[in-house]
Amino acid sequence: MASVQEVDIATLARARESGAPVLDVREAQEFSQAHVPGAQWIPLGELAARVAEVPADTTVYVICASGNRSKRGAEILEESGRRAASVAGGTTGWIRAGHPAESS
């Protein structure tokens, strides 16, 4: 299995400013507490069955709490022919870096 691209929080912030999609693969309770504004939410356990819902024409930035589940999420997307990057540091790192977060 090929290793997935991993990016840092600053890279995510720049990509997001350019309109890049963000996919959050955490569980419902985690997502509702805080997430990157505008992030699409598909729990990791459902991602393989819901890959068609993820944009296919651009790199998708996959985020979780700290960066472990997002690596698996990015692998699932890559295996389906999509381009993906895992965000190291995850939502925790995003918030610690002072970026905005939404709750739902």
UniProtKB/TrEMBL annotation:
<dbReference type="GO" id="GO:0004792">
    <property type="term" value="F:thiosulfate-cyanide sulfurtransferase activity"/>
</dbReference>
<dbReference type="InterPro" id="IPR050229">
    <property type="entry name" value="GlpE_sulfurtransferase"/>
</dbReference>
<protein>
    <recommendedName>
        <fullName>Rhodanese domain-containing protein</fullName>
    </recommendedName>
</protein>
<dbReference type="InterPro" id="IPR036873">
    <property type="entry name" value="Rhodanese-like_dom_sf"/>
</dbReference>
<feature type="domain" description="Rhodanese">
    <location>
        <begin position="16"/>
        <end position="103"/>
    </location>
</feature>
<dbReference type="Pfam" id="PF00581">
    <property type="entry name" value="Rhodanese"/>
</dbReference>
<feature type="region of interest" description="Disordered">
    <location>
        <begin position="81"/>
        <end position="104"/>
    </location>
</feature>
<dbReference type="InterPro" id="IPR001307">
    <property type="entry name" value="Thiosulphate_STrfase_CS"/>
</dbReference>
<dbReference type="InterPro" id="IPR001763">
    <property type="entry name" value="Rhodanese-like_dom"/>
</dbReference>
